[in-house]
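yo

u said u wanted the structure for the complex thing, so here. seqs first:
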Amino acid sequence: MKLSCPSTEFDEVIAAVCHGTATETEMRALNELLRSNPAARDSYLFQVELHSRLASNPDLFCDFQNVSESRAADRENVIALPPVRAKGKGRLMQTLAAAACLALVAGGIALFKWSQPGNASTNTPVAMLTRTVDARWGSKTHPPRVGSALEKGTFQLQSGLAQIVFYSGARLAMEGPVELRLVSENEAVCVSGRVLAEVPAPARGFRLRTGQLSVVDLGTSFGVNASHSQTEVHVFKGKVELLPGKTGEQSLAEGQAALIQGSDLPQLMAASPEAFSSMFEFQELSLASEALRYDQWRLSSAQLNRDPSLVLRFDFDNLDDSDWTLANKAARTGLAEDGVIVGCQRAEGRWREKTALEFQSVNDRVRLVVPNEFRALTLSVWVCLKGLDRDFNSLFMSDGFDAGTVHWLIRRDGVLGLTLFGPRFGKFQIVASPPVPSLENLGVWQHLAVVIDGRAHEVVHYVNGLPVGRHTLKLDPPFRVGSAELGNWNARSGPDPEPSLIRNLSGSLDEFELFSRALTDAEIRDLYLKGKPEL
Amino acid sequence: MSADPTRQAGDTNAAQQRFLSLFLRSEREIFRYVAALVPNITDAEDIVQQTAVALWEKFDAYDPNQPFTPWACRFALNKARQWIERRQRWQALLEHGLAEELAQRRQELQPEFEQRLKHLDGCIGKLPEGQRSLVEGYYYERASIETLARRSGRTEAATYKILQRIRHALQVCVERQASTETV
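structre next:
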């Protein structure tokens, strides 16, 4: 085969190379042509450049255009469901994540690989290591770091104490020697050793198995001491259900304990906190350190409130069931009023003593009004997701589709989306971050922020203090908020909205800020560091 | 383990964050550099991922006073070479020094490419809706040719053809825009 340039065959072979379908013969012919003909080489390079530009610049497709209002909603919809993750495609967008994971494995550091080697892309983290004291890990366990994600799999703690928090919210304290297998975000197997489980309401149903039985939690604190031949279960608070192999179900109430050996019936006895005293002390220490962190946050909150560019700040602190307003804590008054809580459950925040608002039903929302127009805006929120149930899960959205307003949301596929509406009717820009893998870590507090910089013409999304996507801002300021909602959206669509217009969040918020300027990378990082749950 | 594991983890986190923030900014540029050698998107992405790992492993040796992208591209070239070595077809395309020659020439042509490709956005906007959504489906959504063919009721071969025609149209468009600009 011989190629010449220009020719149709030449273009066709280039297309085949781009699509990955060129044969060896074609590639060889192309090689010969490109080496001997500089014009052909330049033409090849340009065609390939155009192709790689299309593949690497999602901005090209998130363009604003003239469309009607309903098309705007449709478009958010169309872009909403690319099967980027489904087939492992669009991986360039995920390289960040992969780089993080792979890098950690390659560097032999933080990512907790447990004992099985394998492909980093199949990681399924189900929990996080939150605290250790003098922990020595088994020889087959890669030493994990505090704060690292724990994947499914088995690990051994030889001695010392460790606490892990499952993504469901269940906390396990353990004292070595212990061998534990993580099964899912709400299930583990205690092969041998002593563990103390503390299970808050959202994780109810947490299941701990041993060689002899399953302990199903019914909202409690309980201890398990397991060996290969027997299991002891002690209930310190609430109630658990035992599901042994043959002897049928049995429930244990507070203060009760049971010893199960082989297939014998459980022997009932009194619960013995002494047997778990080291773990109780450890838990108390954890609590003390949480309280300290909470105090530090309150201190930095007081400073933050005085920022002159702070328009609106909700700290969601000290909320009780009767509160129906959310105070604007910004020291400069008159920029925005208090918010109004509609529905929502009061829930636990980043620290046990701190309150949060949980959004779950389609009615749950915080309504607010921000007058004025802005050259730049920064939105910042602490969120603990329960699920990405909808195609669009609202963080903060202006009502309807008015000129100059903003919609900030998380797509079902873990992409942070910001839609800005231009000054003219029907003009808008959708800015979509690459998929953010950590958004799939349900039940973990995360910091999200977006900066809309009208002067530098840039929109930047941040997750946990780090930029995850920078895009050119194609619309000119001013921008505004007007009437808006946290955790939901008023589409102004009438009584029976289409599914794409229902965008309520499933999860909790425990801090929100709106600034009238573009915060820098360093300032966003600082917001994250001051608010992150653990030191 | 060291005496103070949390401290050490903190340092690693900070380095990681520095790395990721640099890498993120350069990622597209590294991808295009690799794609000049291995234009197939998924293959190029594989190489970029391998490059990311290599970069992180050697991040200690990175001098923050040097620009990150050229440093990263040197690793990318190596990774691309290793990748090509194991694939006969791609060897056939890039052998006898063509890989290095392409990388080199691409650098020289960058300003000119930039001049033309800044019009890409506008040219995509001018495509008829059907073509636009096909390009978007292939490049942004990363739908397979099979899916795109099914969606539009064409054969896969016809879909490949149309994509090629659209790229050609975009090429003509950006070249025309760039040339009217210089007149």
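The longest helix of chain B spans residues 5-37. The two ends of chain B are 67 Å apart (CA to CA).
cya
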